[in-house]
TrEMBL record:
Protein name (record): Uncharacterized protein
Any one Gene Ontology BP term: DNA-templated transcription termination
Organism of origin: Dipteronia sinensis
Keyword Ribonucleoprotein attributed: no
GO molecular function annotation: nucleic acid binding
């Protein structure tokens, strides 16, 4: 099985001459000893060769840290967490925790969100603040809802979150739906979202598809997100 991972390494030809094959083989062995599946190892080598070939002592230390935090080696979140620790030191992670705390989240909630999706703490402070402001202040989800579905905050505010929430906002103000779980709005596939919230209500609100595609502004229909604060 290690041969498959080494083949993935060969395909990642960029910068290969600067890497140490011995480190890679040892690091792969470390991951395999912890039960990390072949698919995750191959993905790490293909997309993050610099990490796969990094100093073995540091590599093992980061892996141990991820294990102690309760990540399941069989899941790809284990590799994601390993990547985050490679890119951010603990002080920086603590700073990100403080940003989420500003929204009333407890450390337990924040680290729980991190365990569900490690990139939850890799986001910039600007991205965290803008997404939380919209989801909490404009859409009335609780901060804890975001921690429960941490992948939601990773999506683009302009390309995904705002278009979908615009549709939801109109339906709510027209009394056609009540509060919807965050995962059903942001995380669900485009097809499911369109089926549940656009096509289903198109007779009552013909402009929904245009709203979704940004061709019709909410203000043109007399709606706005500010009303959620009232």
């Amino acid at each position: 099985m290690m041969r498959k991972s080494l083949k993935a390494l060969q395909r990642a030809s960029w910068g290969l001459h600067n890497r140490c094959p011995k480190n890679i083989a040892t690091n792969i062995s470390i991951l395999k000893e912890h039960g990390v599946p072949q698919s995750s190892i191959a993905a790490l080598i293909r997309h993050h060769l610099n990490v796969a070939s990094s100093n073995t002592e540091k590599f093992a230390g980061y892996v141990d840290k991820v294990v102690k935090m309760g990540f399941n080696p069989r899941q790809f979140t284990f590799i994601n967490a390993r990547m985050v620790f490679n890119q951010l030191n603990f002080k920086t992670l603590e700073q990100k925790v403080e940003v989420y705390k500003k929204w009333g989240l407890s450390e337990d909630e924040i680290w729980s969100g991190f365990r569900k999706h490690p990139l939850f703490l890799q986001l910039s402070e600007k991205k965290i603040m803008s997404a939380m402001d919209f989801l909490v202040n404009k859409m009335c989800w609780q901060p804890g809802d975001v921690a429960q579905v941490p992948s939601a905050i990773l999506y683009s505010l302009e390309k995904r979150i705002f278009p979908r929430c615009s549709v939801i906002r109109v339906l709510q103000l027209k009394g056609l739906i009540k509060q919807v779980p965050l995962s059903c709005v942001v995380v669900t596939t485009e097809k499911l979202f369109l089926d549940r919230f656009v096509i289903k209500f198109q007779d009552q609100v013909p402009q929904l598809l245009n709203i979704y595609h940004g061709k019709t502004d909410l203000l043109e229909l007399g709606f706005g997100f500010e009303e959620t604060n009232g």
